[in-house]
Design brief:
- It is a single chain.
- The chain has 321 residues and is mainly beta.
- Helix content is 4%, strand content 48%.
- It has a 7-stranded antiparallel sheet with strand order 2-23-20-25-18-15-14, with no helix packed on it. A 7-stranded antiparallel sheet has the order 3-4-5-12-7-10-13, with no helix packed on it. Strands 6-11-8-9 form a 4-stranded antiparallel sheet, with no helix packed on it.
Length: 321
């Protein structure tokens, strides 16, 4: 999915200097962003207070939206470099098409994972006809310098492993949870899991103490380590946790995001991740000139133009503002 913000700002993320080494409870409020013609998203990362959680560097939550009489998600062809995109649905369907010729319809709790490497472009649309509701999250994972030029590829995993406990079903999106490992390709120590809790569930989820974590609330009424987390908000949890207390007052859905703190500083602007301002400027030029990123064949409509770069390059400022 694209960042459609026409006033996209350069930001530098990563580096371990601002990682919270102990458990915390830092509630992150979303910023509302219009995505295409009819979809509004709640942007949790990058956030005013925090830019990354492990290698997770971009998180949008959208829906549930009734799109019965709407086109739903309509994101024209756009480029990516230096990252992986993770498409995750609770309701609805999203048709993925990319410049490699891959075409797949991603459905609820199926993993659509696109690794951009140095260059790829794709489009995402609600198919016609489409289900009544659209509800999900779009996330990006930053690629480390050692793998940011890997060959671009797309993975669609319709079946994912699960870990279960009384009142909990955890679907493993990336990495592993309690011995259940996702087939999705990863390039850094990372975890992503969809947590479905039943009303009355009261449990402790095992965690990796060396990882930093955050929880995104998708639906329902749930307390995470004693903090009520409303749908569309995210609780940053820091590092140093061996377990996470969860208590659900109703049926609820969460996304657990975590990983080893990302050591490298990255420059992220629009739909590109690089290491310098010059890399980002070159990527924008290549996209606008029709170089390197390829063409999404079969899409009816024009590709998305890049916004203008800011007049001055950004200086590194670390993981938080």
């Amino acid at each position: 999915m694209s960042n459609l913000d026409r006033q996209a700002a350069l930001s530098v993320c990563g580096g371990r200097g601002f990682v919270v080494a102990e458990p915390v409870r830092e509630l992150l409020a979303p910023r509302r962003v219009q995505l295409g013609e009819s979809t509004e998203v709640r942007r949790l990362l990058p956030n005013l207070g925090r830019r990354m959680v492990g290698a997770w560097c971009f998180v949008d939550h959208y829906g549930p939206d009734d799109i019965t009489s709407e086109p739903g998600m309509q994101v024209p062809p756009h480029p990516h470099q230096g990252l992986q995109t993770v498409s995750w649905l609770h309701e609805g369907e999203v048709l993925h098409q990319d410049s490699l010729g891959c075409r797949a319809t991603v459905r609820p709790r199926e993993l659509g994972l696109m690794t951009s490497g140095s260059a790829i472009s794709h489009a995402e649309q609600s198919p016609a006809p489409h289900p009544r509701y659209l509800h999900g999250a779009q996330l990006w994972v930053a690629l480390p310098d050692s793998h940011r030029h890997v060959d671009a590829h797309f993975e669609h995993h319709a079946e994912l492993p699960q870990a279960t406990a009384p009142g909990l079903t955890a679907t493993v999106i990336l990495g592993s949870v309690d011995g259940a490992a996702s087939p999705g390709t990863t390039y850094t120590p990372i975890v992503g899991a969809d947590l479905a809790l039943t009303a009355g569930a009261d449990l402790r989820l095992p965690l990796e103490p060396d990882f930093e974590y955050a929880v995104l609330s998708m639906s329902g009424e749930v307390h995470v380590d004693g903090v009520p987390v409303l749908p569309g908000s995210m609780l940053y949890l820091g590092c140093g946790r061996g377990e996470l207390p969860l208590r659900a007052a109703s049926d609820a859905g969460l996304m657990l995001l975590g990983g080893e703190p990302f050591a490298e500083e990255i420059v992220m602007w629009w739909n590109f991740i690089g290491r310098t301002n010059d890399e980002i400027a070159q990527a924008r030029s290549d996209w606008m000139n029709g170089d390197r990123f390829g063409e999404v064949k079969g899409y009816e409509g024009a590709p998305l133009p890049a916004p203008e770069l800011p007049p001055t390059p950004l200086k590194p400022r670390g993981r938080v503002r």
